[in-house]
Please model this.
Amino acid sequence: NAGVTQTPKFQVLKTGQSMTLQCAQDMNHEYMSWYRQDPGMGLRLIHYSVGAGITDQGEVPNGYNVSRSTTEDFPLRLLSAAPSQTSVYFCASSDRQETQYFGPGTRLLVL
Amino acid sequence: AQSVTQLDSQVPVFEEAPVELRCNYSSSVSVYLFWYVQYPNQGLQLLLKYLSGSTLVKGINGFEAEFNKSQTSFHLRKPSVHISDTAEYFCAVWGSGGSNYKLTFGKGTLLTVNP
Model:
């Protein structure tokens, strides 16, 4: 049981580039979400999904896209990277609505 | 809408001293409450949670928290800390019921345990 996995661990982008952060879970959880963590800000919800084919916006969705074609995968797409998107990104999953299990994170630097 | 306030951004303590990390929340619905811990350069790990029942909740590594509905608080305590407890601690609230699927985090408290 790998739990929640995220790739890549580190990424450097130039302003305007696009990329996809990968997230996968092998626990058959229905609920998955993406957060960003910035110093002094805690974790803020970007997007979430309550099942395959269903996604919704969180607190800070601008500049990000998500899709959920399978239960296992929940990729986060940056459409046109900006320096303000420099952050640590965490994916989480849950079999119930409330107890979430977090991946190890992706550190993103946008120059 | 719901929100979480962690009253201290940093808490320095000496090893073997007791510690309390304070958390207050606001919500218009019943809530589930959580404490997560993040060690340096790692993801978040669930420390403990309150869903219902006894208001005193025990978690991993000797931590406990008490849910106080009248004061809308969920403070985290440990009677004797170790160097290894140095980490950032996050309080979080989940509004139960309805279509509220959002876990809202506080801004975190950095606990530093000194020898």
